[in-house]
Design brief:
single chain; alpha/beta; globular; 6 strands; six-stranded mixed β-sheet
């Protein structure tokens, strides 16, 4: 019987391969597919890889990644307990937001990852990821006040989406006050997955 890990590997090697489906491939160093527990109850989705992710081929390994790791540990989990991916697998130059055609080209791969992993909750890291997963076009404040659902008409899969502030947003400027908010939203996500997050 084929495992989820083997199916994810097949998706990465045989379906994505040396992807050239959008212009992002022209400047990438590595495709950043995703990593973590292939049967995770909690799946984190960011928008796009940054410079360090592009160099290593791993998601969330820069400063924002270290911040995310700390949040995960604070709530009693390990990075290996969750799965982490992005809406697009190649880095946009200058860390710009991916354009809609770039997200559309990559969307089938993210949809397949979600279908294979079957998470109990999707944690959207930032406004762009939350809107991509839920099909909305809202501000972060509006997203946090909404009940969001990821729905895939082809597979029939529905998964609750919990938007949290992106770690890079919290680290930038004087936004440290957003960290408790992000942690509280993350506790909500873990509760939806049936997990018991640690209290501060």
């Amino acid at each position: 019987m084929t495992t989820v890990a083997e199916k994810l590997d097949y998706l990465r090697v045989r379906k994505i391969g040396d992807c050239q489906r959008c212009p992002l491939h022209r400047n990438r160093t590595n495709i950043v597919f995703g990593e973590g527990d292939p049967e995770a109850d909690v799946m984190f989705v960011g928008e796009a890889p940054g410079a360090q992710e592009d160099q290593t081929g791993r998601p969330f390994v820069g400063m924002a990644g270290r911040c995310l790791d700390q949040w995960i540990v604070t709530l009693g989990l390990k990075r290996t307990d969750v799965y982490i991916a992005n809406t697009v697998k190649c880095r946009p130059l200058d860390n710009r937001d991916p354009y809609p055609p770039e997200k559309e080209a990559c969307a089938p791969f993210l949809h397949t990852q979600i279908y294979l992993i079957q998470p109990k909750v999707l944690v959207a890291l930032g406004r762009h990821a939350a809107n991509s997963l839920s099909g909305r076009n809202l501000s972060m404040g509006e997203l946090r006040e909404s009940q969001l659902i990821y729905e895939n008409a082809k597979t029939g899969l529905t998964v609750p989406v919990v938007p949290i502030y992106h770690p890079s947003y919290v680290l930038r400027g004087k936004r440290a006050e957003k960290e408790p908010v992000a942690l509280e939203d993350l506790r909500t996500a873990l509760a939806l997955a049936g997990l018991s997050p640690c209290k501060e």
